[in-house]
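Job type: complex structure
Entries:
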Amino acid sequence: MTFAAPQPPGLVEAAPAAGTAPVAVAGYVGVVTRTLAFAVDAAVINAVAVLTAAVIALALSVLSLGNDLEAALVAIGGVAYVLWSVGYFVGFWSTTGQTPGARLLRFRVCTYAMGPLKPRRALLRFAGLVLAAIPLFAGFLPILFDDRRRGLQDILARTVVVEAADVSAAAP
Amino acid sequence: MRVTILDPLGVTRLGARAVRASAVRTEDAAIWALDSVVRSEVAARAVCSVVEGPLGDIAMQAAVRCGLVDRVAGQMLEGGLVERVAGEMLDGGVADRVADRVLAGSELDRLVTRVLEDPVTGRLIAQVLASRLLDETVARVFEGGLIERVAGEMLGAGVADRVADRVLAGPELDRLVTRVLEDPATGRLVAEVLDSRLLDETVARVLEAGLVERVAGEMLEAGVADRIADRVLAGSELDRLVTRVLEDPATGRLVAQVLDSRLLDESVARVLQSEELWLVVEEIARSPAVTSAISQQGMGFADQVVGEVGDRSRRADAWLERAARRMLHRAPAASQPGGP
């Protein structure tokens, strides 16, 4: 894997093929665009979760369950929600590199070499995302100052967020 | 028992030939008579006298009051005479030949000229339109089903198709449109015809008889509608008509009269009530071209909105980054070609 040399903000250099010069292809995506995309993703995640919960609650409403069982079901629901959220991000990042929100706003997450993320790296990035949000979202501040607009999650997972069209042109 | 009639001298064949020859002569004679009447100054003066004098009114009123014309027309219609004559003309191809001859010759042109340019003829038409006699005659004709039969025969024999071809290809249509557009008297005449109750009733009866649907169906099948559309679009009449309508207040009033008339409302209501229209609309709406165009337009709009949001968010990215760097007294980031 070949990492791109540091570039000015917004410029992405694709991993060069053997014997060819590096090509500056893209702009890194900033915090506002990523926040909008995250809002879209959150809406999708919650909409699916609410619908699923409503269907299950409706089905269970005809049964008389004990309090202990209800508490267990709520816990199971919470775990399912977390798994669904993790699976959503990890699944999209490690396959297309784009969540639906990112696709809407036309950017994608990739490695420094402009390649797709492996599931483990995608999982690490999600963990970084949670860590970045815990201290009042301070983990996202580096996006404003980093040359490649990387947040804590990007630094941890060694990823960048770039314009989608440019990556598709550069990626093999 | 079977009886065979021998005809060694060919009398039957001779008779048929004589009938055909007489039909051709009759046709030529009729056209010659029409030509003579149209050209004749005597006929013009006679028409002037009848129209301008009280005699025409009195005779017409008397005829209607006494029921003379009504009885004659009634007997003709009830006895099937008109139908028989029309049938013979259609079966023998006489009507077809007459139509060809009239359209190819100059008689129609002269007749149209006379009708359109002569104020006396205009008054005569106005009187006829106002009289009750014509109403009753039209009512009888429609009740007898003659129009439907004649139209059916003409459509079946392709006469209408050939006539439409000839009218579209010939110069008569152009001349007619020119006169209608340029002559104020003609405009008034057209306005009177449009304003008359007779036209409303005639159209209502035609619509009730389902004749329009049949004629339209036949015309569509024969491709006449396509040819008419091509001719109208290719010719100069449409341009001139549009220019005239836009420039002339009189024509504008005429169009306003047409739009205000009960006839148009009824026609539109009738068309909207017909199942065929909605079948056509459904067919068009379901066609791949239309659905593809609509979906492309929808996708295009969504793309446009998303693209605009993306552009604005990227500008916001750059602005926020500059503000943050300014606040911390850090050097601004280098410009980003192709990105924010």
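Summary: The beta strands of chain A are 12-13, 24-26, 107-111, 159-163. Residues 1-25, 167-172 of chain A have pLDDT under 50 and may be disordered.
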